[in-house]
Known about the structure:
CATH architecture of the largest domain: 2-Layer Sandwich
Protein name: Transposase /integrase family protein
InterPro entries: Homeodomain-like_sf, Integrase_cat-core, RNaseH-like_sf, RNaseH_sf
CATH class of the largest domain: Alpha Beta
Oligomer: single chain
Shape: globular
GO biological process, one term: DNA integration
Number of helices: 13
Order of helices and strands: HHEEHHHHEEEHEHEHHHHEEEEEEH
Radius of gyration: 28 Å
Structural class: alpha+beta
CATH topology of the largest domain: Nucleotidyltransferase, domain 5
Largest sheet: 5 strands, mixed
CATH superfamily of the largest domain: Ribonuclease H-like superfamily/Ribonuclease H
Helix content: 25-40%
Organism: Desulforapulum autotrophicum (strain ATCC 43914 / DSM 3382 / VKM B-1955 / HRM2) (Desulfobacterium autotrophicum)
Number of domains: 4
Distance between the termini: 79 Å
GO molecular function: nucleic acid binding
Strand content: 15-25%
Amino acid sequence: MATPDLAELAVWRYGIISRLLHRNGDEETLEEALIRLSSVQYRKLDGHFVSYSPDTLKKWFYRYRNGGLPALNNSPRKDIGTHGTIPQTIVDRLFKLREEHPRWTLSRMLDQLVQENLWDKKSPARSTLYRFAQTANLKRDPHLAAHVPARPFAYSFFGQLWMADFLHGPKIREKGKKRKTYLHAIIDDATRYIVHAGFFTAESTEVMMAELMASVRTHGKPIRFYTDNGACYASKHLKFVCANLGIHLIHTPPGKPRGRGKVERFFRSVRDQFLDGKKAPAKTLDGLNKAFREWVASYHKRIHSSLGISPLQKRLSHQSACKALPETVEIEPLFRMKRRCKVYLNNTIRLKRRIYEVIDALPGQRVDVWFMPWNLDMVWYGPELKPAKPVDPISNANRIRR
């Protein structure tokens, strides 16, 4: 949908606050009316649903009373595109440094300013200097930077490309406390078939690895795996896993979701059809995932507007590019993560707030520990990969001491 002009935006906002203008002050105070309107979801001009705080609605109310309909528009910032807070000495030196060192990163250029006592790391702010470098084309190799337009693409067979991403979900109750949920989904590019998806209480690469392992076990290994997760230890391990499985891992830069349009469109369907409304589909994580699996089953059978057939029909009628793993191949060891842990005097190690017994290890040394991030019931240690069981204090108390 095209971006609405200022007149449409002002009229849309007026439609919300008009109830405040015509309210009966004897029956309802302004604060009560603001609270009531803030609890309602409104359909925006682009089709999305949104709700506003009482302070925002109150601001619109007084803007309209003081300036009429034009006052409900968004006024552009007067200082946009300018950087008046940056001293001219810093500006000149940045241009000179970029000319002398085209391969330097901006962070290195700022360190040079600190060494030359031109910048104290406080004023102007680092974010201000980064914005200035962006608008002044002072990034590394500016002469090589070129805008490459995004082009629509589609693969022919199931398994040629899987896309993975996270969606912020509703809150559920876990042990009496509210926890935020995150939907992780893996979708096939060619068929729009949901390879694997589920709600979790964390947004991490460890969750992504667990979902990828379940997907490979069910469908075989794809050719490409597309994700936008940032650089971290778990992300490096994901690269290791994909390399050993023969999967080409593709990372998109953070904040630049080019190429993930299909999974983003699926998330919009989840928002509009599954999570729409004030009431959450379930109050527990298990109930939420159960309801979501039922919704995905119906999604697979509905006609997809881009495909002309349902994702399930597309999946069954097209060849699969996934390569099934032999039954003798165990992929679980590839997904195990490694960490060095200290052995304490009571022959135990600490891993992710859990204590494990390592009977054959010497106190004071450090041992290599392998574990599955999503299942810590069993870990392995040492070059022989011996199992390290969680400490059971009750069983230890009942042991016969000789």
